[in-house]
Amino acid sequence: MRRRLAEETILFVSIFKWFIIASAVGALVGFSTTAFLKTLSWSTAYADKYSYFFLLLPVAFFLSSFITKYLAPEAEGHGTEKVIEAIHRRSGHIKVLVVPVKLLTTVITLATGGSAGKEGPCAQIGGGVSSILADILKFDNADRKKLVICGISAGFASVFGTPIAGAIFGIEVLFIGVIMYDVLLPSFIAGVVGYQVSAAFGIEYFYHPIDFVPAFSELFFMKVILAGIFFGLCSLSLIEGMKLFKKLADKINVWEPVKGLIGGAALVILAFVFSTRYLGLGLETIESALEGQSVAWWSFPVKIVFTCITLTFGGSGGMVTPLFFVGATAGSLFANIMGLDLATFAGIGMVCLLAGSANTPIAASILAVELFGPQVAPYAAVACVASFLMTGHRSVYPSQVLAMKKSSSIDVEMGKEVEEIRAKFQLRKRSLVRIIFSYWRKLFGR
Length: 446
Prior knowledge:
Elements: H1 2-48, H2 57-71, E1 77-78, H3 79-90, H4 98-112, H5 119-137, H6 141-160, H7 163-172, E2 175-176, H8 184-200, H9 218-251, H10 256-274, H11 283-290, H12 299-312, E3 316-317, H13 320-338, H14 342-358, H15 361-372, H16 377-390, E4 401-402, E5 410-411, E6 424-425, H17 432-444
Parallel strand pairs: 1-3, 2-4
Antiparallel strand pairs: 5-6
Helix pairs in contact: 1-4, 1-5, 1-6, 1-8, 2-4, 2-10, 3-5, 4-5, 5-6, 6-7, 6-8, 7-8, 7-15, 9-12, 9-13, 9-14, 9-16, 10-12, 11-13, 12-13, 13-14, 14-15, 14-16, 15-16
């Protein structure tokens, strides 16, 4: 009896401890995120007054690359990836200078039209603030990791106004196939508090309830699964595109800020060729797709190219908003081809690209409910899982650690970061996959 009471007392104290600390993290991150979002809103509003402001992209990428290289190299690229890397490789230690550098370079990038998102800096705000707080409280590495994960959750929740999806994203994005249940409660607390603080300071969030409720049928359900596969392939295109452009940038043997000049100049040329709608956050195009308006079929591959150039040639920002753009426009294209409701599949596409590219199907499914309402939830969840499986053992966040095989017919070494993994086929004698491959070879001689 005494032992049971002691256990319950310890658990009570632990819950109370993390309630206080996670609330503090959520409040700090919510306030910091608000400051960043308001600064970004002001700067982009100012830039929008001048139609050719995007001509400054080469200068912006040069400055972004220069500042990052000499002040905080850890702030390079998209911020969420760097926080994941810090958790896995440095027990959550993040330098103080990373936060202001990331904020400054992201504002410079997005204000001039760089194709990136705003959640990456918020994840680094959350991670950086949490790491500083862990230093002050003299936390050990285990508690430091928990605190930094809470910071990611609060940052994601604050920037998109989705406290539950934000909390789940913060713990699901670290490992492919595993959720850290011991961080679930503080992540929820930090996400909810961060969102409430940002909303209280006047941050307005995007919600778009989808009223279309399709009657269930076997044919429609198959189309939903087919859509998930298609969005998985779109996610794969983005992941491989990032790798390709990163290799290209590495082969150009010049001073890093000069690469920024090259990348910025390339985006200026592409903007004249394809339109300026692919620059910046692209929120207008996302909203158009969600309202059921048709968009150009080439929108999603063009946005992938713009985003890859931005994040590998000196620009700074996040990945999730471009994922939403790619998903919404790809969903509109799929719906057009299949004769389906454009708005419904634009919404499903948005969350599926997050599920596939970031390997976060649970967070993406909950995000669908928080953004679009419960009517679309069953279809979005099924499509998200299909997209997640279709991307294989890859990720837009190379520092994610693999904790599961997506197929028993594929041999991969678990426990490693995604960028180190080399998948191999491992077909069992009587597996369905082997039978299909056998028939394929007989039919096509390959």
